Inverse folding.
């Protein structure tokens, strides 16, 4: 990431997005939020690496 000030906040942004995703997925699937892992299991480096997503065209 080229912007150091954003880099410092990236973990916070990812955590917030994950919480939102859990809420949406639970509502969509009619499941309890507790059915999903409380924390995301991916490293920041993985999420920023296009090679990490093997099923997507590169």
């Amino acid at each position: 990431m080229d912007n150091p000030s954003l880099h410092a906040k990236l973990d916070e942004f990812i955590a917030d997005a994950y919480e939102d995703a859990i809420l949406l997925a639970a509502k969509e699937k009619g499941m309890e939020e507790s059915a999903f892992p409380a924390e995301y299991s991916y490293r920041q480096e993985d999420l920023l690496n296009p090679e990490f997503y093997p099923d997507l065209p590169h």
